[in-house]
Amino acid sequence: MNGALNNDLREIWVYLSASPLAGLTMTLVAYQIGLWVFERFGRRPVLNPVLIAVLLLAGVLTASGIEYRTYFAGAQFVHFLLGPATVALAVPLYNQFRQVRQSALAMLVALLVGSAASSLSAVALAWIFGGSSATLRSMAPKSVTSPIAMGVSEQIGGLPSLTAVFVILTGIIAATFGTWALNLVRVTDWRARGFGMGVAAHGIGTARALQVNEVAGAFAGLGMGLNGLATALLLPTLYHLFW
Amino acid sequence: MLGTLTILLLCQLAGELIARLLHLPIPGPVLGMLFLFAGLLLRGGVPRAIQDTAGGILRHLSLLFIPAGVGVMTHAGRLSAEALPIILALFGSTLFGVAVTAKVMAALLRPTSASADEAANPGAKP
């Protein structure tokens, strides 16, 4: 009887671990756990729900011997939505577009300088300390929101999944230590502080700016959208021109 | 909801098609975003349904990063082998990027009254 039950369980396990249902459900459950931990322990930036979910899932997959490829067969339904979500970024971009007119020039210059500074300093630092070619390519678009960063990474020969990890870590670093960096360079204007967070650290930086000041939040959202656009348009073009 | 999803997918599809046809170095969804943005500009406003659905999707944007993020396990070897360049590059470039962007923008902006009286208390800022 015990043996028959074990056989049944083994068959169910074999069936479930190979079906899309498992990967999809695990992804949603892990995200909910990540959100719960984030809310429960005071919404600290270091307790980023995505980071928690990723670590949790990687741990479960490794422990149970399920291959990433098998997991992704189910999780790809979530992954697919990155495309429509990128299109949807047009809505906040439009909502905040009116504010651009007053400070358009300052924003454009700051965008181009800041975008180049983030990308080039990342590649340069990784290169100086001996990073590999794939790491450098995956590092270049890490300041912008993941759907765009991963698309750009693919275009310039990086590894999109490695870029996604760099993107998340970039956001967490800015949300945790960005205030310190902004105080260090003595920037007090809310518009500039928010814009810096959005340009250099996409959605996670924007969320942090929104928590503290509404103007900073609006300009961070704008910075995120504009740098996503600038990086998508300029980075692959420049890359193909020079390499 | 369904209408908006259809519009989002149509914009993405148009973006993918044009990017491939013209061999543009831009991801299809990004072109799709430009199309939707142009459409909103032409229309002169965001319809309520699009506002709500787009807001709903973007609220859980971070969920969509997870499947690709779990791919970190396939890069575990690289991450530990290149830990030093990766950590230094991420910390250095992120804080440098935030500071440089904000500094340049602040230098070019005319100061507002809102920022002036908060200069005394910079610790509370994002």
Automatic annotation (TrEMBL), chain B:
Keyword list (alphabetical) reads: Cell membrane, Membrane, Transmembrane, Transmembrane helix
Write out the transmembrane intervals: 24-45, 57-77, 83-102
Give the record's membrane topology: Multi-pass membrane protein
The listed locations are: Cell membrane
Example GO CC term: the record gives:
plasma membrane
Q: Does the keyword ATP-binding apply?
A: no
Q: Could you tell me which InterPro entries the record lists for this protein?
A: LrgA/CidA (IPR005538)
Question: What Pfam families does this protein's entry cite?
Answer: LrgA
Q: Which PANTHER family match?
A: HOLIN-LIKE PROTEIN CIDA, HOLIN-LIKE PROTEIN CIDA-RELATED
Protein name, please? CidA/LrgA family protein
Q: Please name the source species.
A: Azospirillum cavernae
